[in-house]
Amino acid sequence: MIAFGRLLLDSLRDLAPIILVVGFFQIVVLQQPFPDLGRTVFGLAAVLIGLSLFIRGLEIGLFPIGESMAGAFANKGNVFWLLAFAFALGFGTTVAEPALIAVAAEAAAVKAAEGALPGGEGAQQAYALGLRYTVAVSVGSAIVLGVLRILKGWPIQYLIIGGYVLIVVLTQFAPREIIGIAYDSGGVTTSTITVPLVTALGIGLSTVIKGRNPLIDGFGLIAFASLTPILFVLLYGMVV
Length: 240
Hints:
It is a single chain. By secondary structure, this protein is an all-alpha fold. Helix content is 84%, strand content 0%. It is built from 10 helices and no strands. The protein has helices spanning 2-29, 37-76, 79-95, 98-113, 120-152, 156-171, 176-188, 194-208, 214-217, 221-239. Helix 4 packs across helix 5 (120-152), helix 4 (98-113) packs antiparallel against helix 7 and helix 7 (176-188) runs antiparallel to helix 10 (221-239).
């Protein structure tokens, strides 16, 4: 109970800047009371408790299982199953990402409102689903690339630079209406579900494999997961 109370205090400290900013602009700048103070306080308390439970869940559940599974696959010595697990992990966590679902649905709705997506609600759902699966496949591919980098010891900077050079080139040829969506897709993949498991995978692998440093080699998978969705969505826009 004491540990959870300490966790609540830590979460409150993390939320304090947001609370101060909202309170300052609402009271000092706008000079208006909160429209429903009771609901606001209740919502803040719910966020505080939810954030604390989420962080605790990461510590006791997701991080350990991610690291242990990565280590088990590495010790098994079967690269195929390790890469298959990496792809499935990236795909599965991304396709269920709430932020991606929201962005894909909003992109389909705006595209339909602009008249660029005929066919009614079914066409919107198909477009949003295609966008989600495109991003999910891209993240799965990114995790596979990141795992190969850890196994082979490739320098991360060259892969990142090459990826962004390719993005700049594709941007010149992609339809204008897909460019913003593509760049936003790189951000929504690095959210609450994907980041903990992917990070645990990288750390677990670099801990088990000889000659790898968890601090140097264990991180960087999230960078690939942010980069490849931009590439894939730009290509998706050019094809679809």
